[in-house]
Amino acid sequence: MGKVLYIILQCTWGIFQTFLGFVIFLLHYKSKHYSYHGSIVTVWKSKTSVSLGLFVFVTSEPFFAKKFEGQISVAELSNRLLVHEYGHTVQSLILGPLYLFVIGIPSTLWGFLGGRKRRDEQIPYGAFFTEKWANSLGEQVTGEKSIENLVLE
Fold this sequence. Notes:
This protein is of the alpha+beta class. It is 53% helix and 12% strand. The protein has six helices and four strands, in the order H-H-E-E-E-E-H-H-H-H. The longest helix is centred in the middle third of the chain and has 22 residues, at 74-95.
């Protein structure tokens, strides 16, 4: 899919999440921004990452990086996280106005409420359907590796 079509679809079919992303983008206009496969990526100081339509917000310091020290570099982890988040933008293209309900809310709950269970039982972040699908889509579209089955805390 071409970048222009990607942007048009995110701004029409994915208008709700793109609008929310734009508001957050404006709040973080002084942060570092760049383009990634048509999306607008903002590197912010939050410990979490999120995708909202055309906009992707990635953490400047993945909180789980220390766990993988010596196995995977922080740069590699950050790129894998970006591929995962980009997968969520593809979900936005597929689901349009349903994205926030089918992906956004469940994904947020899994991220914030499932942390202890994932850590205690060593459950990969990608075990949840929204995240597994985002990993798969991100890898298919970019040709790069996502966070796959890493156990994130």
